[in-house]
Amino acid sequence: xxxxxxxxxxxxxxxxxxxxxxxxxxxEQLLDDGQCGIYKQRPDICREYENDYCEYDASAEEGFELxxxxxxxxxxxCQKRFKKFP
Length: 86
Ligand code: SF4
Known about the structure:
Structural class: alpha+beta
Oligomer: single chain
Number of strands: 3
Helix content: 10-25%
Order of helices and strands: HEEHEH
Bound molecules: iron/sulfur cluster
Number of helices: 3
Distance between the termini: 15 Å
């Protein structure tokens, strides 16, 4: 996770369903008109996504148990959480 969050525009959160990695960048398959450029071949994660409830209904952050926006935030948490963490 520390390696992943070291990259630009990558964040993590944890909610009641577990840990999730967020890429704060638009998908390269997203067309200017808002449609998917590879709709018929879109990945399973896109097929499984439901938008009946989304961030327009309520801030996603309200449901986050933990939220890390940077390497520094995550390593600070790890150092407090795990006594033997370097
Ligand atoms: S459906 Fe998936 S692949 Fe298509 S634009 Fe959205 S995120 Fe990208």
